[in-house]
Amino acid sequence: MDSKPSSSETTANGTIYLSDAVTTAAKILVVGHFAVGKTTFIGSLSEITPLRTEEKMTQASVHVDDLRGVPDKVTTTVALDFGRLTLTEELVLYLFGTPGQQRFMQLWEDMARGALGALLLVDPARLEETFPVIDLIDEYGLEYAIAVNTFNAQQHFDEAEIREALDLLPDTPVVYCDARDQRSSANALIALVRHLLDRAA
Description:
Elements: E1 8-10, E2 16-18, E3 24-31, H1 38-45, E4 51-56, E5 75-86, E6 91-97, H2 108-112, E7 117-122, H3 131-139, E8 144-149, H4 159-166, E9 174-177, H5 182-200
Parallel strand pairs: 3-6, 3-7, 7-8, 8-9
Antiparallel strand pairs: 1-2, 4-5, 5-6
Helix pairs in contact: 1-5
């Protein structure tokens, strides 16, 4: 995957515009529990400078946000992340990253509106934290794929174990990715797009 999609145009000041060849735009949610790597994932893929609403974590969040497994985390998304990826000459994806904490779940209604599907990032060491997110995906009727984010994983689980632990349907895609790596993240997103196309066929 090239760092700059062929169907975008870069101006002299570095601004990336869509070309006239793009005919279809799709809204994709990147979801998952707190500190699973959503901001990093979107940042690794976006062809534009991503919009981020990260704030420093303060003492006030100590008894609210569970930092077990992520002791080095110092910022958190408080509204959304936004990025753009031109996937083909005709198709552009708009990526919306949702905040992971329960207190921000009221944002889901607006963010889910018009979304084609969701890529659900999971941390294999904290699978139990994924269930509330799956409940929200089901509540809003979104098709989704699972992306197991391995960049900070202390444990490895094979696909069968992930499926059983999360009680997934047989046709729900499960892929492994490193959210820091562009190619790895792109492969996860492509798995979701293929799943959405199969479901629409």
